[in-house]
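Internal ticket #5521
Category: modeling
Description: The requester needs a full-assembly model to guide mutagenesis choices. All entity lines are attached below as received. Residue total reported by intake: 615.
Assigned to: D.W.
Attached entities:
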Amino acid sequence: MKPSARSRIPACLAAVAALLSSCGQAAEPGGQTSETTGVQILHYFTWSDYVGPEILAEFERREQARVIVDVFSSNEELLAKLQSGATGYDVAVPSDFMVAIMRQEGLLAELDATKIPNAESLGAHLQHLPFDPEQRYSVPYLWGTVGIGYDSQFITTPPDSWSVLWDSRYAGRISMLNDQREVFGATLRWLGHSLNETDPRVIEQAKHKLIEQKVLVKTYTSDHYDQLLASGEVVLAQGWGGPVARAMKDRPSIRYVVPKEGGTIWADCLVMLKSAPQKDLALRFINFLLDPEVAARTSERLLFAASPRSVGSLVKPAIRSNPAIYPPDELLGRLEWMRDVGQAVRVYDRAWTELKMH
Amino acid sequence: MRRRWSWLCCATWTTILFLYLPIGVLILFSFNASRLSASWQGFTFDWYRLLANDRSLITAALNSCFIAVVSTGLALCLGVSGVLGLEGLRARQQDVIDSAIMLPLVIPEVMMGVALMLFFVTIRMPLTLATVIIGHVVFNVPLVMVIVRSRLKKLDRRLTEAARDLGASRWQVFRRVTEPLLRPAIVGAGLIAFTVSLDDFIVTFFVAGPGATTLPLKVYSMIKAGITPEINALSTMVVVASMSLVGLSLLLQRKFV
């Protein structure tokens, strides 16, 4: 055995190890700044397409920092990722109920209110919310309602009750969300209960109503009902306001209503993670996103309402007056936040499975 | 006899149609002028233009390429040396190790993803781009070994023995005899590994950390915000890239056999 042969193998291994560790360092969340340029790096964990590139560029210019965006596709995915020990993210955007869960799991850092002056101008209905009553861990960012998108060409008298989703005239042209709490929530509100009902008998009653409705429903979907509405495949869709507003662009006869019995109000909130490596920059980023002018641009692009009070006067009038995007003030009293139902979640699970199997 | 042939022929075409029709529709609708996938409203390149200007997508694509290049390189180093090492073992041992190598190829990817993630958490290694690369190396090494080993078995052992007899060192034998003979298999395996790494969703999903959003992860999360032809356009690019790499790999392997 010549020495040359032997010595090369460890050399190769060393090179491989060096390569691995160097790319480990490049992505190492603990590394506060990239060593070559001294630029601070912020990791933003959010929904796909939730932040406009020009907004990021503006923040990067202002702070001389870099923002790296990673995306998740559901609240559960976000939670799983963080619970499994992924660290290095600074700012995330969970929905209301997930804020409560993440708080209980000890994943969130307290926000220093003095560093987020823009958070003080939130609308009254977005303050002291059930999932974070003391407003210590989260700031509502984008919000909206769940209601009914309908095609006014076919449904000439504007519906004002969830009961329209049980109208057999529209059999096969109705879509419902593929979300057990939202589907049961709408039914429960229609039946005069809270959408956070925990009484198994009442949930059972709602289940029977939904089984009755199932023959009329074309599909349960949370992803593409805007397309179904816009292409005319369905004329009634339970859904979030934003996608319905998107469908209006393609088919102007689409309208949106939150029925008189009331419905869900939701908010995606900005939070800072306890493990955030860049806490100061994170707070500045949260404050920046809540800047009324920046938030107005986000609102116009995503067709969701933004939380700062003064955003209403900054967005285009057509956006402000669209009830699918900005719920009218008189509606606010009829909206309810989705809460953790505790043990009753099993009752919902079983009822939902039975509905789907029926 | 003739009837039977036409029936089989028909079955073949149905199978091909079954496999490629969805992809065909996907590609077709990436040129649709309408945002809605339900109706065709004329031809456009707009969605591709949108793609080219989407910073988050470009970042994801670069991440994917970087991960694929590095993990393929590492998998080749480990895989080829592993195969050569195997040759020196006794037949019984080879059989055992052979099946051990095959195992990662047949266990469900979800298991592999969960196992890797739990492993990283246990050893307290933060999830980053590096963990994704390691994850990809794990499923690519067996792939490389299977391909390279099948080629190595066909080689005439006398060639290397002759080289040794003529005074070449082991390294020289590898550089001048074994590696050139294995090269088509190595290149082919590399291209396949690159493609698998580029397309992988499940393992990546579990082991990705900050700054490691790959193209497949990005596509998956985009669907949540509504399916637009932009996703069709992106998927078309991925399909074309993957297919040309696999095609190239097959071509290279055939050319040198």
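Resolution: model delivered.
Comment from assignee: The interface with chain A takes residues 34-39, 54-56, 59, 70, 74, 77, 81, 117, 120-121, 124, 126-130, 133-134, 169-171, 206, 208-213, 217-218, 220-227 of chain B (CB under 8 Å).
Ticket closed.
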